[in-house]
Amino acid sequence: MSLDWIYYAISWILLAWHSAWDAIGVPVGEVLGTNWAWILAIVFLVVTVRVILFPVFVKQIKSQRAMQALQPQVKALQEKHKGDRETLQKEMMELYRKEKANPLMGCLPMFLQIPVFLGLFHVLRRLNPDRDERWKVLYGWTADQFDSASQATIFTAPIAGKFGSTAEELAKLNANGTTVKVIAGVLVLIMMLTTYLTSRQMILKTGWAEDPQQRMIQRLMLYGIPASLLISGAIFPIGVIIYWVTNNLVTLGQQQWVLRKFPPPPTPGGKPGSTATKAQPATTRGLLGRKKAVAPAPVKPAAPKVAGPKPGAKPANPKKARPVKKQG
Predict the structure, then answer these.
(1) How confident is the model at residue 227 (pLDDT cuts 50, 70, 90)?
(2) Mean per-residue pLDDT, 103-119
(3) How many CB atoms lie within 10 A of CB 146?
(4) Which whole number is the average pLDDT over 279-293?
(5) Cα 207–Cα 209–Cα 213 angle in degrees, nearest 5
């Protein structure tokens, strides 16, 4: 299956944003060793994609909430059909169908972004000033736009360069190998950290799943994917890593907003409409896993003791005598 339509779509959005920043007056030349018009074009490619996928993202959160609400019933089915895996799977699928919950919805936004990632990867990998003219004008580019993007840099490292670039590739990009490795290496570490934080943020807000299958997926998202980026990040062009980091930062902000708007379901036995979960321990963990001290509950000051009147003493505030009514 040809992916040209993806390459055309990504190129169109990227070039449209570059033209927009150029028209606004963002310098075309380097400032601090960076061609900001191209960097901003990649950043706003992320923004465009996330705006388009926002309804899907909301559906993902709603589906996760539905899955959480069904955990007691799932646990009951696991106890009922212990040892009968086939019947258990059939009953769980029927439960999900009846309650309109989709276990795969949690991964859907990520899967929909894979074509965008692959498209940008392909487009940026092509950047090379020495390419023949017919290659430069593919996917709606002009030769001038292609040459401009081929020379675009971030802190003097070309956006088409990568940590694993060969000496020949670096020579074609007129790039310094040490600079490219340093910039790419720092960005890969940031990419790994932000990928971990996006998964951790979701788990901190929703909790670990009761279903072993769902829990395994959570662990894969939390640890497996960030770890894999240490190796795969070496083959990503710097422009693609900028896209990934920006996407993670947008995800962190978007998740925070959606998780507040759609809080976790109430726990069994709680008050209707309550979103409170189990009682929190004395310390909680923040986004980076550090313990944050919980402020102690304020103690009401004790009421001052008032000494009673001594025997035989006159009252301090005697009541005024009521006037005696005259009898007619």
Answers:
(1) very high
(2) 80
(3) 21
(4) 46
(5) 150
